[in-house]
Amino acid sequence: MVPSVDPVALVGINGFGRIGRAAFRASLARDDVKVVAINHTAPDLSYLLHVIRYDSTHGTSPYANEFSITESGDLKFLDRTIKLFSERDPEQLDWASAEVEYVLEATGKMTTVEAASRHCKPGKGAKKVVISSPSKDAKTIVVGVNRREYDSSMQVVSNASCTTNCLAPLAKVLQRCFGIEYGMMTTVHASTSSQHILDGYSKKNRRLGRGVGSNIIPTTTGAATAVQLVLPELTGKFTGISVRVPVNNVSMVDLTVSLTTPVASVEELLKPLREAAAGRYGSSLGSLTTVICVDDDELVSSDFLGYQQSCIVDSHATVQLNPTTFKIIAWYDNEYAYSVRCLDLIRYMFEVDHGLRGGETPTASRPISPVQGAAHIDALTADKAARLAQRVQGQFMLA
């Protein structure tokens, strides 16, 4: 019998960098997942408290004054206590003491099944791990694309990359509706902490060793290959590169695609994307309301900061060469939206593992207080007002 109120998935975050912090902020806007433990490497707890309260990209937390450190050295948030660890050896972590069931592995270092499984040591460990990066051997799951391939026997799964989470849902809709002959993708990607501020050395390639602030840097990406992991019918049909640009956050997929079925216009191409985003497309795709949206405003990258969708198709920047060849532009907040997908995946795993509803639609985050910072909202159109409300909720984590 399915409970009338679903229990909460209890999560531990290992690694408190960009994705770990964004996932923690995102969790505060939800009632279906709860972060109960964090493993960090901050030099001291006051420093940890500082980075929880303040962020140069996502702004000051509206709960800045609601966080504190307890006498026992844990994090206090409102009436909740969040267990804090500072342990570099995952086998020494006592996740079980905080009742952690799912670990979000966000260090970027433990990306194999063998490494991530160290979080699941009997007695002290968690039950499952979601890797917040691509993995060579873990099952890759992208919410809205192949989520149903998860089963409870899987202990470690990968949430792929932020770029794959943008590209794969888009490719899924196009493939199902029109068929894809081939696709060539460029991700115009925001800079990341792995890059150098000034010229240095990179283990990956020479270009990535150059200073991020003064260069546009072409490099490689595994996103096009990863799409083929979650959409096997596209094997051999996708390739792509990445171009790193000097912005802090929000990236863009530039996809040139050749379709099997001729399409009369850009709007005809966009129609199934709009339908999927509205939850009306049908069972073959399911609802993608929390994953895809189509934006009709002429916006720029910073306008998408805090959006929860993984793939925001830009209708004005999408162009047609002929009935089968299109260039499609899709934006994504490579930090926040990706972190929300990590939590969505954990929630779905929880539902499958506990025999709750499988659900085709990811559970949306629940606002607990009115949207702040939008006093001028009544002057906007209803469409823009809804978009602003979504952005403010996403960016500032109103609980």
UniProtKB/TrEMBL annotation:
Biological pathway: Carbohydrate degradation; glycolysis; pyruvate from D-glyceraldehyde 3-phosphate: step 1/5; Carbohydrate biosynthesis; Calvin cycle
GO cellular component, one term: cytosol
Active site: C162 (nucleophile)
Keyword terms of this UniProt record: Glycolysis, NAD, Nucleotide-binding, Oxidoreductase
Residue ranges of domain Glyceraldehyde 3-phosphate dehydrogenase NAD(P) binding in the record: 9-162
Binding-site positions, NAD(+): R18, I19, R88, S132, N334
Chain sites annotated for binding D-glyceraldehyde 3-phosphate: S161, C162, T163, T192, T221, G222, R244
CDD domains (alphabetical): GAPDH_I_C, GAPDH_I_N
Keyword Nucleotide-binding: yes
Site feature: Activates thiol group during catalysis: H189
Chemical reaction(s) catalysed: D-glyceraldehyde 3-phosphate + phosphate + NADP(+) = (2R)-3-phospho-glyceroyl phosphate + NADPH + H(+)
GO biological process: glycolytic process
UniProt-recorded Gene Ontology molecular function terms: glyceraldehyde-3-phosphate dehydrogenase (NAD+) (phosphorylating) activity; glyceraldehyde-3-phosphate dehydrogenase (NADP+) (phosphorylating) activity; NAD binding
Top-level lineage group: Eukaryota
SMART domains with a match to the protein in the record: Gp_dh_N (SM00846)
Annotated PROSITE patterns: GAPDH
Family of the protein in this entry: Belongs to the glyceraldehyde-3-phosphate dehydrogenase family.
The protein, known as: BQ5605_C008g05141 protein
